[in-house]
Design goal:
The protein has a five-stranded antiparallel sheet, with no helix packed on it. Strands 4-5-8 form a three-stranded antiparallel sheet, with no helix packed on it. Strands 1-2 form a two-stranded antiparallel ribbon. It has two domains: about 60 residues, no CATH class; about 100 residues, Immunoglobulins (Immunoglobulin-like). Helices cover about 10% and strands about 40% of the residues. By secondary structure, the protein is mainly beta. Strand 6 and strand 7 form a beta hairpin. The chain has one helix and ten strands. It is globular.
C-alpha cells in the first residue's frame, strides 16, 4: 500500500479503518480504507478515547506527557541532608545511573515555588564505556552544598539541560 493512501491533505484527521479483519493476503497485510467517517459519528467520547490510546502508546515509547517527582532513566535518587533551618548548611546529593555512550551534563536547582530558582551547581557525567545494546549503568553521585535565607517550602530539582523533562526532584521545608 502506498503512503498516499494514508493521508488526505484536505482533511485534518484521517482514520484508517479495517474493512474486514479476516481479509488478509499471504503477506499478512490488512486491507484498510482511508475514508473519514462522517463528522457526526466522531463523538467527543470517541475523540477522548483516541487521545487516551495515543497517550498510552506514547508513554510506552518512553515519551512522557507529565511528571511527578521523577521522570528519568538517568537519575535514581535525590537526598537533602543538613539542618533545614534558615542559614544552616544543607547538602543536595543526587545519584545517577549513566547508561548513555556520550557525556551528559546535569544541573541542580533550588526552587521556591512562586518566588525564585537558584542554580546550585552543574556536573558532567562521563560517557558510559559499555556501548552494547543493553549497557551496564555506571553508578555515580553529584553533591552540592547550599544555604537557604528564607523560611518556606522548597524543591530541589536536578535535570539534564538538553532534556529538561529528564529530571528528579524532592520537596522539603525550611523552618
Amino acid at each position: 500500500m502506498s503512503m498516499s493512501n494514508w493521508f488526505v491533505l484536505s482533511e485534518r484527521f484521517v482514520s484508517p479503518r479495517v474493512m474486514n479483519p479476516a481479509a488478509c493476503d499471504g503477506d499478512m497485510k490488512l486491507r484498510v480504507s482511508t475514508r473519514r467517517p462522517p463528522p457526526s459519528t466522531l463523538s467527543l467520547a470517541a475523540r477522548l478515547a483516541a487521545l487516551a490510546v495515543a497517550a498510552l502508546l506514547l508513554a510506552g515509547c518512553g515519551i512522557s506527557l507529565g511528571g511527578g517527582a521523577s521522570s528519568s532513566e538517568l537519575f535514581s535518587k535525590v537526598r537533602i541532608s543538613g539542618e533545614p533551618v534558615v542559614g544552616g548548611e544543607m547538602t543536595l546529593e543526587v545519584t545517577e545511573e549513566q547508561r548513555y555512550p556520550v557525556a551528559v551534563d546535569i544541573s541542580c536547582f533550588l526552587v521556591q515555588p512562586g518566588h525564585s530558582r537558584r542554580l546550585l551547581g552543574r556536573d558532567t557525567l562521563p560517557a558510559n564505556p559499555d556501548t552494547s545494546v543493553e549497557p551496564t549503568p555506571v553508578a555515580g553521585a553529584s553533591t552540592f552544598r547550599f544555604r537557604v535565607q528564607r523560611q518556606g517550602r522548597y524543591v530541589a530539582l536536578c535535570n539534564t539541560p538538553l532534556d529538561p523533562d529528564n529530571f528528579i526532584s524532592k520537596q522539603f521545608r525550611v523552618k
